[in-house]
Specification:
heterodimer, A: alpha+beta, Ubiquitin-like (UB roll), 5-stranded mixed sheet, 7 helices, 11 strands, globular, B: alpha/beta, Glutaredoxin, 24 helices
């Protein structure tokens, strides 16, 4: 393994060459806030909360640590005024976009950031911060890509194509599970689940009789793994 | 068409083509670039054809339909060879007269000559026209001499000689070194040294490698790449083939906006013609090198001009940029080594190869070599495309080539570099156009937009406009650009509408810093530039809006009032006629008045008044 040595806030660290800076920082106990990072999915570098200053040779620049590959001799600073300013503004911008989000408020409290009074908060109960975790989970973890983005800029929204019921959605709810602001709503009864405007029939466990997962999700798993549906019709508890 | 299989084949063909062409044969070269077509030039062309046929002159007089000549302000236009008589603002029914008088009798039609606004002198020949005199038309030079749809025209004037030289006499590495030595820098915005980029891509491991031509020009008011692709597509193509050979790529793409139909049509035809001659495709001219180009039409998103967004779009995904800590030269299109250059950059390559790096590096300044095409627009007499050597002073471009500001108004600023560029005030008009100098002034070269503003442009409204554009064109991926640009625009709108508060300028500055540092791509990073530069140079206008609730330029509708100066008003009644809401009134031949309650501040009265009797305050 090709290892490199460099410093984070003056402390020398060692890591595999090309490893992402955020991962290395966290392994070394350095706290860097994030809004769009998740351990199971590739980071999009979208939220810009994880910015840090990196000095390489003579050049110092602000980079997103989640996607920055570490190299020998770099000097990383995670708490400079420049970095803190970007984080503060990003958080204020997100709070103005999603004034109802409890998660953003908690984060702001922790970081000592107050809402910018000059921004008129959007008159909405929208709590989607466009972190992309749902879209990426659906694509990279579930593998169905049932949801994506429509429009661009400030009008960008997450949803199914053309806001129609998705034929490829399996109702697994991974998007709702991963959503850091609980924006994606999943409702229903034990027999039936509703998400993205579609209802999904739930499978009844052959052993205990409890409903435990959408039938379409189990069919997808069966198709992907080759495990027959029969074997998948038992809930986790009874396996 | 015969397929050319050897290097000599090209030279032989060129010889035959030149032999068959009499340089003294009369030829009417009519500009059919998009600008001139919009003037209705097609009708003129049709009638020129009809009139030539009527007189059975079609074999004696050539009619050449060329790409853009640059002087778009003065279309429809033609240059009559061999004398190079320059006719402008040609009437669509002037065909017969031009043929009968000028072509047959050698008479000059006075009416169609350009009049120098400074000396009032009538200019007969193209090369005497002040608009062209100070230019150095290198990349654009061939536009008037060829028809963009004729590969033979291009070859006859020396086209594809650079390709032959490169393939026959130069090793790929020598070509890269030549481009490095010429210090050609990217014309699309970044100004990155092209040769270094080629070198990186050449050395990168990965197969296949791609070369791409970025023709996704989208700056408001800029159209130089469009005119190059429309007017001389083979020049761009030749540059790409040479680049591909140097880099070691067999796959090329041209990413061109679908809103440029003529550019798409002409480059498509050029690729087809080049394939038929064996200048593109398998084993080009028997060299063993193969290369072909595909066209991808972009859907019109401004952000797709950003390299990584362009790759995403080419790959069939939404045009969103990605973080580029690993350069495209190593991981670009489909994660393969990719070299992306802008249209104008590619078009410079054949000149460097033909005439050598030393010659090329002799043009321009220490850090910026060669020429640059600007689209000179806004409050300027000679709107059009101008090509000047790097290092020319902004003042020379605005006044000597551009002919100054219309109606003798006062110059206020010039915005260079497109929507993310900065506004440069009068005191820096003697600065040279140079990548580094413009950056020092808080602006940038960008792709070459140059918007001239006079004392009637409000320097708070201008950045508000550019930010509105960028807000719409932001892809929405990263927070600082998506939310930050929008908030900056909201504050600017407040200032323009009289709701500005103390501290707004400081807040704009603080937001700008966060966006510059925090945004993901160059669109976001540079979006605050118009605000930063106007705060830097025109802070007084911000203060007037915020503190006095006044717009010194008389632009911001909520902050202005129109009034009629009774001493100057002759009571002609024109302002009554043009007012759409009946706010102006008065007895004939007596001073008129404006009813402020009815007035919508559209400015039509002021525009129409011949006596400057309408005052904005």
């Amino acid at each position: 393994m090709d290892m490199v040595k460099f410093t984070i806030d003056g402390k020398e660290v060692e890591a595999e060459k090309g490893a992402y800076l955020l991962d290395v920082a966290r392994e070394n106990g350095v706290r860097i806030p994030t809004l769009c990072w998740h351990e199971s999915i590739e980071s999009p570098g979208a939220c810009r909360m994880c910015v840090v200053e990196v000095k390489q040779g003579k050049r110092t620049r602000v980079v997103t640590s989640c996607l920055y590959p570490v190299s020998e001799g770099i000097e990383v600073k995670t708490q400079t005024d420049r970095v803190k300013h970007v984080r503060k503004v990003v958080l204020q911008l997100q709070m103005a976009r999603c004034p109802e989000s409890k998660e953003l408020k908690d984060m702001a409290d922790e970081m000592g950031v107050k809402p910018e009074p000059r921004f008129t908060p959007d008159a909405t109960d929208n709590t989607c911060i466009l972190c992309r975790m749902c879209v990426r989970t659906c694509e990279q973890v579930v593998g169905v890509s049932a949801i994506g983005f429509s429009y661009r800029g400030t009008e960008k929204v997450v949803g199914t194509p053309f806001k129609e019921q998705s034929k490829v959605c399996i109702g697994c709810g991974a998007c709702a599970f991963v959503c850091p602001t609980h924006h994606i709503k999943m409702t229903g009864t034990p027999e039936e689940r509703e998400i993205w405007g579609r209802n999904f029939k739930m499978m009844k466990c052959k052993t205990c009789g409890n409903y435990f997962a959408p039938i379409e999700q189990l069919e997808w798993i069966s198709k992907k793994t080759g495990v027959p549906m029969d074997k998948l019709s038992v809930c986790q508890a009874c396996k | 068409m015969r397929k050319l299989k050897t290097f000599d084949g090209v030279e032989k063909l060129r010889g035959e083509l030149q032999k068959g062409r009499d340089p003294n044969k009369p030829c009417m070269t009519v500009c059919v670039g998009t600008g001139c077509l919009a003037y209705g030039t097609q009708k003129l062309v049709d009638s020129l054809k009809v009139e030539l046929e009527k007189r059975k002159l079609q074999d004696k007089i050539d009619l050449r339909l060329s790409g853009c000549h640059g002087f778009c302000e003065r279309g429809p236009m033609m240059v009559i060879y061999p004398q190079k008589i320059f006719y402008q603002r040609i009437g669509l029914n002037d065909a017969a007269e031009i043929i009968d008088k000028t072509l047959l009798k050698g008479e000059i039609i006075d009416r169609l000559l350009y009049v120098d606004p400074m000396t009032k002198e009538k200019i007969v020949y193209e090369h005497d026209c002040p608009f062209y005199k100070k230019q150095m038309r290198l990349v654009f030079g061939m536009n008037g001499q060829i028809s963009p749809t004729s590969i033979d025209d291009y070859i006859a004037v020396g086209g594809y000689a650079a390709l032959v030289k490169a393939l026959q006499k130069m090793k790929p590495d020598a070509i890269v070194q030549e481009v490095i030595k010429a210090n050609l820098r990217g014309r699309g915005g970044g100004g990155f040294p092209t040769g270094w980029k080629w070198d990186e891509t050449r050395k990168a491991t990965g197969d296949p490698k791609y070369v791409i031509c970025n023709a996704d020009e989208g700056d408001p008011g800029a159209y130089m790449d469009r005119s190059l692709l429309e007017g001389n597509p083979h020049l761009v193509l030749e540059g790409m083939i040479i680049g591909a050979y140097a880099i070691g790529s067999s796959n090329g793409y041209i990413y061109v906006r679908n809103e440029y139909p003529l550019a798409v049509q002409n480059i498509t035809a050029a690729i087809q013609a080049a394939r038929e001659y064996g200048l593109l495709g398998e084993n080009i001219l028997g060299s063993g090198f193969s290369f072909d180009v595909k066209i991808n039409r972009g859907g019109g998103a401004f952000v797709c001009g950003e390299s990584s967004a362009l790759f995403a779009s080419l790959e069939g995904r939404a045009g969103e940029p990605r973080v580029k800590y690993i350069h495209a030269t190593h991981k670009g299109l489909w994660d393969k080594p990719t070299n992306l250059n802008n249209v104008e950059t590619w078009a410079n390559v054949p000149f460097i190869i033909n005439r050598g790096a030393d010659w090329y590096a002799g043009i321009g300044t220490a850090g910026s070599k060669g020429t640059k095409i600007f689209s000179l627009v806004g409050k300027i007499n000679n709107t059009g495309l101008v090509e000047v050597p790097m290092g020319m002073k902004l003042r020379e471009i605005v006044y000597d080539i551009g002919g100054g500001i219309p109606n003798g108004r006062k110059f206020k600023a010039v915005q260079t570099g497109g929507p993310s560029g900065g506004c440069i005030p009068e005191k820096y008009l003697d600065s040279p156009v140079d990548f580094d100098e413009l950056t020092k002034l808080g602006s940038m070269m960008g792709s070459g937009g140059m918007i001239v503003m006079d004392d009637r442009n409000c320097m708070v409204d201008v950045p508000r406009y550019f930010l509105s554009f960028l807000e719409i064109e932001s892809c929405g991926k990263c927070t600082p650009c998506r939310e930050g640009v929008r908030r900056m625009k909201e504050i600017l709108t407040d200032i323009c509408e009289g709701r500005g508060q103390e501290g707004d300028v400081e807040l704009l500055d603080s937001l700008a810093k966060a966006i510059v540092d925090g945004a993901l791509c160059a669109l976001g990073n540079s979006a605050p530039n118009p605000v930063i530069s106007t705060i830097r140079y025109f802070r007084d206008e911000y203060d007037a809006h915020i503190r006095q609730k006044k717009c010194p330029a008389g632009v911001c509708k909520k902050l202005i009032k129109y009034r009629i100066d009774a001493k100057k008003c002759t009571g002609c009644g024109l302002c009554v006629k043009v007012c759409a809401v009946g706010a102006t009134s008065g007895e004939r031949k007596k001073p008129h008045a404006i009813d402020i309650a009815k007035c919508t501040r559209c400015g039509a009265c002021m525009e129409s008044c011949k006596f400057e009797a309408i005052i904005v305050e």
